[in-house]
Amino acid sequence: MILTMVQAINQALAGELRRDERVVVLGEDVGRDGGVFRATDGLFEKFGPERVMDTPLAESGAIGAAIGMAALGLRPVPEIQFMGFIYPAFNQIVSHVARLRNRTRGRFTAPLTIRTPYGAGVKALEHHSESTEALFCQIPGLTVVVPSSPYDAKGLLIASIRSDDPVIFLEPTKLYRAEKQEVPEEPYELPLRKAAVVREGRDLTIIAWGAMIPVAREAATSAEAGGVSAEIVDLRTLSPMDRETFLASVKKTGRAIILHEAPKTCGLGAEIAATIGESALLSLNAPVARVTAPDITVPLPKSEDLYYPNADRVLRAIRKLMEY
Amino acid sequence: MIERFDPLKGERLRVLDDEGRAAPDLDPGLADAELRTLYERMVRTRAADAKALKLQRQGRLGTYASSLGHEAAQVGLASAMAREDWFFPYFRDLGAFLTLGYPLADYYHFWMGNEAGMRTPDGLNIFPIAIPVGSQVPQAVGAGIAIKHRKLGAAVVTTFGDGATSEGDFHEGLNFAGVFGTPNVFVCVNNQFAISVPRARQSAATTLAQKAVAYGFPGVQIDGNDVLAVFAAVREALATARAGGGPTLIEAYTYRMGDHTTSDDAARYRTKEEVQEWERRDPIARFRLHLGHKKLWDEAYEKDVQAAASEFVEKAVAEAETRPQASVDDIFAYAYSSIPPELERQMAELKASLPEGRR
Questions:
Q1: Which of A37, A119, B167, B285 is deepest in the core (most CB within 10 A)?
Q2: A 115-154 residues inside an 8 A Cβ radius of B
Q3: What is the mean pLDDT of each run of 10 residues along chain A (324 residues)?
Q4: Of B333, B89, B119, B337, which Cα lies nearest the Cα of A110?
Q5: pTM for the full model?
Q6: Residue A93 DSSP symbol
Q7: Cα(A21)–Cα(B329) distance, rounded to whole angstroms?
Q8: What is the Cα A230 distance to its own chain's centre?
Q9: The complex's ipTM?
Q10: Which of B110, B114, B127 should be substituted to probe chain A, the one whose Cβ sees the most A Cβ atoms within 10 Å?
C-alpha cells in the first residue's frame, strides 16, 4: 500500500490493537475525533471506547494513569497532542516511567509508548514546534525513537509497542504527509537501538534523524553534483544510541556533520561529537561540524525559515569540511 | 454510613469516643480476635517505627519518615483490604506495609539505602512508595482502569498526605477517577503538616474530603486516630468500588507526632502544647481502652504483645543488616529490559576502577 507517515502510524496502531488485547490507546482527542492529525482515525469505531480512550485534558494524569495501567498488565499507547505540551507529564516520565523497573528491581515495569508529534517547519502556533528530544535522552530507562519515513514509522512503532521498555516515540509533524511510500499491509518490526545508513557515500557522514533526513538527502544530492559523496546515517533510536553505526561510517569517510533541528547547546550533536572524539579521532580529516537550530526559542511562523536548518546550511558545512 | 457525614459541613465520622467506647450504630462489628489483631498490628508498627528511628540515629539506616501517630490510619486501611486489592502508598506507610504482609526486613533494607528492599515480593500487590508528592494518585487510577478493563474485580487504595492535595496530580487523578468511575479508594492522611507548612496553607476548604464533591463522587472526613472508623470507612468504600460504584475520597484526620523525617526538626514550627494535646488522642491508647471495655486487654496480654512486637522487629533488623550490598551488576541491570552496549562499556570501566571486593 502507498501510505503517508500518518497513515502508516494509524495502520501500526490498528494492527497492534487487533493483535494484542492489552494494547490501549489513550489521550486528548484520540477517540471520536481520531486525533488532530488523524493518527488514530477510525480506531474508536473499530475497537470501542475502552481500547481507544478519550481522556480528560491532563497530560500528567494521562501518563500517570498509563503507568498504573502498564503495571497491571496493559500496554498503553498514550498520545500527547504536541511535544510542546508534554512538560506537565515530565515528572511522571522522569520520576516513574523511566525508573519503575529499576526502583522495584524488575518487579514492576512501565512499557508505555508515548507518541507525540514534534518539530518545526509546518507554520504552527507557538508551543507547537518543539524538538526537545535531548531532555528525554538524558534520562536512563527511556528509549527515544524517531522515524523519518512511512515505512520506518510503522516498523518502529510496532517494535516500540511490543518493547518491554518505555518508549518516547517522536513523530516529525513535518513528515506526516510530506511523502508517500510503499508500506506492507501486514505488521512488521524494525529493530530499536539500531541506526540505518540511508544513503551511502565516501567523503563525509551526515548524522541526522526525523525531519532532518529529507534535508540531509537534499544537501547530499546537491553535493553529489559538486563531486562530493555524502553518506547519511539515520539514528532512528536516539537513546540508547547506536554508536557503532555512525562510528563505522565516520571511520570510513573521515568527516562528520551532525544535523538536528533542536538548539545547538547540549543538543544530541554534542554527545555524538564527543563520541566521535573519543572513538574515531584519528580517522578525522576535519573537525566535527554541527548544523542545528540556534540557542533561541522557536520563532513564530513568519520567522521560522530563519531558524530551521535547511539544505543550504548543510551544504555550507559540507564545503567547509571538504576545504579544511 | 459514609454518606451520613457531610464533608461540606465539616462533619467527621468517628466510631470510638475519647474513652474508647464505640458508637453502636457505627461499630463495624469485628470479632474479638479481629479486634486484637488490629491492636497487635498497631503495636508492631509503633515498635518497628521506633526501631527505625533508633537505627537512623546510630547511622545504620538513612533518612527516615516516621509513622508515629499514624498507626490507626495505616493499620485500619490495610486491614480492610483484600488480597487481590492493590495498594499505591506514599512514603509514610509502615503500618500498611506490615499489615499487607510486606516483610519488615525488606522495608528496612530500602530505608537503609538499597532498592532491593522496594522489590515487592511476588503475590503482593503493593506499588513502590512514591516520593514525589502526589505522583502516585494518577497511577493508582490507571491501576483502577486496568482492573475494570481486565474485569479483575479488585479495588485500589492509594494514600497521600494533606500537602499532596495541593498537587496537580491529585486533582488530575481524582478527576480521571470520577470520569471513568474507577474502583479507587483515595485515603488522604491529613496529619496537619507538609513538612512545616500547616493544613490551613494547603487549602481554604473546610475539609479536604469535600474536594470529592467537585469530582462527582463521595468524600468523607473520618477520625484518623480511630482504627475502627478507618477500617469501617475503607471497608465500605472498597465494597462500593468492587461493586462498580466508583471511587471515594477518605480524609483521615490525624496528627504527625514525629518530625517530617529524621532530617527535620518540628520544634521550629509548632508548639509543645499542640503536640501534647494530640498525645492525649493517641490512637493506640484509645484502642487499648476499647479492648479493656470488651475485656480483651490486661497487663499479661500487653506484655505478650510487646514482647512479640520486639522479637518481630529484632529479627527483621538482623535479617536486613546481613543482606548483601548492591553490586555493580545490580545497579546497572534494571535500567532497561536488556543492557545496551554503551552501558556494558560503562559497567566494565566502573568495575575496572573498583577494588576487588566492591565489584
A1: A119
A2: 140-141, 143
A3: 97 98 97 96 97 98 98 97 96 98 97 97 89 97 98 98 98 96 97 98 98 98 97 98 98 98 98 98 98 96 94 98 96
A4: B337
A5: 0.97
A6: I
A7: 35
A8: 22
A9: 0.96
A10: B127
